[in-house]
Write a structure and sequence with these properties.
elongated; 132 residues; 2 domains; alpha+beta; two-stranded antiparallel sheet; two-stranded antiparallel ribbon
Length: 132
């Protein structure tokens, strides 16, 4: 196949894939994989390399696009089962960020104890509920 025809076919399939179904996704993946396999097979300069590469590429591309479509479909189904309405989220206030100060305590010796320097975190403001 001429490179221009392959590019036109690929562009057409990409444009038609707007509302994706399993068939369209697999067809697009197989086409892209087939074109890539054909190009790599022809590049090897073996007799029948382009046809063999096209078949292998189409199979791998179709499988990958099928698995990707199923994963996307599974994710969208789980989103539909767990809808979070924006209006409900807007009704609830949120917590403001707490204010924390850190102090480094130097090495100290107390009797027969050596206390290595360390950080101490002091909570100055625990945060509060806010609608802003």
């Amino acid at each position: 196949m001429d490179l221009l025809i392959k590019a036109a076919l690929l562009s057409l399939l990409l444009l038609l894939n707007g509302c994706s179904t399993v068939g369209k996704s697999v067809m697009l993946g197989a086409t892209v994989g087939g074109i890539a396999g054909d190009a790599m097979g022809n590049n090897q300069n073996l007799q029948g390399g382009g046809g063999f590469g096209m078949v292998i590429g189409a199979g791998i591309g179709g499988l990958i696009s099928y698995l990707a479509f199923k994963e996307k479909e599974k994710k969208s189904t789980s989103d539909k089962l767990n809808p979070i309405s924006k209006s409900v989220e807007d009704e609830f206030p949120f917590l403001t960020k707490p204010k924390i100060r850190s102090v480094i305590i130097p090495d100290t010796i107390e009797g027969n104890k050596f206390i290595k320097s360390h950080k101490v975190f002091i909570l100055e403001d625990a945060g509060s509920w806010s609608k802003d």
